[in-house]
Amino acid sequence: MFSSKEKRSTLNFRDIMSLVPTSVSVVSCVSNKRIYSCTISSLVSVNIEEDNPEIVFVLKKNSYIGKLISKESFFTVSVLSIDQPSFARKYGSNREPDLISDNNWGVSNQFSHLNGARIFLDCKLVKIYDSHQADIYVGSVVEYAASKNQKSLIYDERTYGKFESI
Fold first, then answer.
1. Cβ–Cβ under 8 Å, residues 80 and 150
2. Domain 22-157 has CATH 1.10.1060.10
3. Pairing of strands 154-156, 134-146
4. Are 144 and 53 in contact (CB under 8 A)?
5. Rounded CA gap, 66 and 139, in Å?
6. Is residue 144 a contact partner of residue 121, using CB atoms and an 8 Å limit?
7. Helix locations, 63-121, DSSP H
8. What Rg do the C-alpha atoms of the chain give, in angstroms?
9. From first to last of its 166 residues, what are the pLDDT tens digits of the chain?
10. Which residues face 111 on adjacent strands?
11. From CA 73, how far away is CA 104, in angstroms rounded?
């Protein structure tokens, strides 16, 4: 614990937030026979009732995928498994769309599932909240699936890893 007289940190706020471990997810949207996607680390459930589950995530203001989600109204969140850090790196930096025929994806109707992911959340856009530096997306989960046999990929201190039980 810090005393009020101690200097708490020499780290900047971005460095401090990198110390908060999060799951790694890829949000994807199908548009014009292509799959547009990017990583997110801000996934939160806001309603866990079976009759109307909802999730929230944040994207940078004016992001291209955010504009597509707004236009198409449907998207998928794939929570990555421990053996998918290469996808986290790819979709964390690359904004070029994938073809629907790409073997990394399974596509059904307007939803795109990243093969091998631990969790899939197929969602319909409910609302976008305009925030100062980012936009907050609310999605109604229309279909979901998970594999309890896999572990989630975790991002902590700007490194990918896994959760270890104590």
1. no
2. no
3. unpaired
4. yes
5. 12
6. yes
7. 64-72, 85-93
8. 17
9. 555 555 566 889 888 888 888 999 999 999 999 999 999 988 999 999 999 999 999 999 989 999 999 999 999 999 999 999 999 999 998 879 999 888 999 999 899 999 999 999 999 999 999 988 899 999 999 999 999 999 999 998 888 888 878 8
10. 108
11. 23
pTM of the model: 0.90
Where does residue 130 rank: exposed (0-12), middle (13-18), buried (19+ CB within 10 A)? exposed
Q: Where do the DSSP E strands lie in the chain?
A: 22-23, 25-31, 34-40, 44-47, 54-60, 74-79, 98-99, 105-108, 111-114, 119-130, 134-146, 154-156, 159-161
Q: What letter represents residue 149's amino acid?
A: N
Q: Give 20's DSSP letter.
A: S
Distance CA 78, CA 116 (A): 9
Those residues with Cβ within 8 angstroms of residue 151's Cβ, 6 or more apart along the chain or in another chain: 81, 82, 118, 162, 163
Q: Are 125 and 74 in contact (CB under 8 A)?
A: yes
Instruction: Please provide the distance, in angstroms rounded to a whole number, between the alpha carbons at the two ends of the chain.
Output: 22
Output the six-digit token pair for 69: 């989600």
State the amino acid at position 133 in one-letter form: Q
Sketch the domain layout of the chain as residue ranges.
22-157
Would you state the pLDDT for residue 54? 98
